[in-house]
Design a protein that fits this description.
Length: about 280
């Protein structure tokens, strides 16, 4: 059986950067897990002493605190500073960007529209930099509102461009001045389109990633649409030999929080099956 890797898979730039920052900040703490991958979190703890704290209440004064890729609200950041923690900022630059944009646009008197999920940590962070932002999930949520003449709009990094364009289209048709910022990050979509291509060719697809990671689940659903025999696994121990019997091509992809060393173990185990 031939094993093929998707053209794009696994860690995005922001996550690679956050892990490197964590590795370089020995014995530091993250508020919540750095990424959705238990084994990587364990590796960071065992090898670099990076611990996960659920809240800053449990941390000693002056402790090193790593801010995760999604960022945190401005007030939370200020509170951490006031408590004298040493802040190590691993917020992805693609997330810092919309924070800066909405802050600047608010100062310049624009009404801020944010296309994203108000419950998501990234959006909680971005909206904290804006004055009275309108956070919407689709265009209907803005249609009844009367905004200022000047409107600035940003999107959550993981949103789909087609849906963003519907909001932009509505705003441009209804307001005199609209500043549109393309804050969507392509990393998620690159993995998705590569998974789609590969799952069309493969007889069996292995999607590697955390079962609580939404982007891994999305990848799995895409694969399942094209390849009936698609499986989502967190590590090599979950693989079963019978999945690969009588198959010609095994495709492998991985969620954005899956490190390469886990993928290598997966490949090793599949080869050991000798199918
Ligand atoms: S998906 Fe994009 S925005 Fe999110 S952490 Fe990765 S590179 Fe940054």
């Amino acid at each position: 059986m031939e094993i093929r890797l998707a053209k794009s898979y696994g860690f995005c730039f922001g996550v690679k950067r956050a892990i490197k920052i964590a590795e370089e900040s020995k014995n530091s703490n993250t508020l919540g897990p750095l990424i959705h991958n238990k084994r990587e979190i364990k590796r960071l703890e065992e090898k670099y002493g990076v611990k996960v704290a659920e809240t800053s209440e449990n941390l000693e004064n002056g402790a090193d605190v790593i801010i995760r890729t999604h960022g945190i609200p401005k007030n939370d950041l200020e509170n951490l500073r006031e408590k004298n923690f040493n802040i190590i900022d691993a917020t992805c630059p693609f997330v810092t960007k919309p924070q800066q944009i909405v802050e600047q646009m608010s100062k310049e008197g624009y009404d801020i529209v944010i296309f994203g999920d108000i419950q998501h940590p990234e959006i909680k962070g971005v909206m904290s930099y804006a004055e009275n932002p309108h956070v919407i999930l689709d265009v209907s949520q803005i249609q009844g509102k009367r905004l200022k003449e000047k409107v600035a709009v940003v999107a959550q990094t993981t949103r789909k461009i087609d849906e963003y364009l519907k909001i932009v289209d509505y705003l441009v048709k209804n307001y005199k001045e609209v500043r549109v910022f393309n804050t969507i990050c392509n990393a998620t979509f690159e993995n998705q389109s590569a998974a789609k291509d590969l799952s069309k060719e493969a007889d069996v697809m292995i999607v590697v990633g955390g079962k609580n990671s939404s982007n891994t689940k999305q990848l799995y659903n895409i694969c399942k649409e094209n390849c009936e025999d698609s499986y989502l696994v967190e590590d090599e121990n979950e693989l079963k030999k019978e999945w690969f019997e009588n198959k010609k091509i095994c495709g492998i992809t991985a969620g954005a929080s899956t490190p390469d060393w886990i993928i290598e173990k997966i490949i090793g185990k599949i080869r050991d099956f000798k199918v």
